[in-house]
Amino acid sequence: MHQVHINKTTYPLPSRWDELTADQVIKTAWLSSQRLDRIKLAKLLFIVLTRSLPWHKRLRIQWFYFFQANTLERGDLVFLTRSFAEFTQFTAQKLEKIWGKSVLKPTFYGPTSAMANCTLWEYVKAEQYFTRYLKDRDEEWLNKLIAVLYRPRRRDYDPQVHEDPRVPLLDTTIPFRARQIARLPLPVRIAILMWFDGCRIQIIRMFPFIFKKDETKNTDLMQKLGAKEKSGNWLDLMTGLSANMTQFTEIANTNLTIALTDITFRIRQQKEAAKKSTTNKRR
Q1: Three-class secondary structure of residue 119 per DSSP
Q2: Fewer CB within 10 A of the end CB, N or C, for the chain?
Q3: E strand or H helix at 84
Q4: Which distant-in-sequence residues (6+ apart) come within 8 Å of 242 by Cβ?
Q5: pLDDT at 88
Q6: CA geometry: angle at 247 spanning 264 and 236, to 5°?
Q7: H or E element at residue 4
């Protein structure tokens, strides 16, 4: 957290994405969709950061910023927002559920932080819609991405038994849920997109044997228009790991981290076997 001191009073402000509140993430998502230069964006982002303070402290620091601070002090406050560009990790779940409180607006629950309770197939489908959205900028793919991640709560959910409160992912339910999610405000949907992107980057860095190194570059969502579809490669990989359809289903429904760890182990074994084979041939 940043610590701002004004007249012996300390004002803690978020310094990382994971320290933002849900409201701040949504407001930041809205800012990212506006055509603003960097200076204006930084100024507005600073105001967003003050929203985590109690109302009296928020008004005090905003009053200081607009009416009392000199140019140098105002520049120092705006400079605090630079930490968000330097430290881009964003995996903490801020929007645990969306909608609710009426029959017309059912409650959809999202994954836990860092997508810890997601399955391999869930990630494959989300990745597919993610890359399609970045390529086409069509909100249909954004809505389907969210429809994969956010699902109704299972009726028999027991926290002592079930790791995930959401109903299992069924491909046939995605289009219907996507049409419902399309009614969500765009900033909320962009906030979820930003969070998924943050989780995706962390996953790519954790499993370098599976993902290419250049897949973490250009982390700005607006610069990823050239992303390519990869679902075919994932299907080929899972097919190669399974001997029959039963195994394919089991692999697809395996916890994401466990599945990627197992795939990494198999890739290492294959590389070591290939290396030994090459060495033996040279002898």
Answers
A1: strand
A2: C
A3: helix 83-86
A4: 248, 250, 251
A5: 85
A6: 55
A7: strand 2-6
| Whole-angstrom distance, CA of residue 117 vs CA of residue 122 | 10
> Amino acid identity of 5?
H
What is the Cα–Cα distance from 217 to 260, expressed in whole angstroms? 21
d(CA 114, CA 94): 11
Could you give the CA distance from residue 145 to residue 123 in angstroms, rounded to a whole number? 10
* Token output for 220: 């700005």
pLDDT, tens only, 222-267: 333 233 334 445 555 555 554 444 565 777 788 899 888 888 887 7
Q: What is the pLDDT of residue 230?
A: 46
Q: Which of 21, 128, 5 is nearest to 69 (CA)?
A: 5
Per-residue DSSP letter, 183: T
Gap between the Cα atoms of 147 and 2, Å rounded: 35
pTM comes to: 0.84
What phi-psi label fits residue 258: left (phi over 0), alpha (psi between -120 and 50 degrees) or beta?
Answer: alpha
Beta strands in 103-218 (DSSP E): 108-109
Q: In 3D, which of 209, 226, 184, 197 has the Cα closest to residue 263?
A: 209
Per-residue confidence (pLDDT) for residue 228, from 0 to 100: 39
Q: How many residues does the chain have?
A: 283
Run of H or E including 79? helix 71-79
Q: In this structure, which amino acid lies at residue 69?
A: A
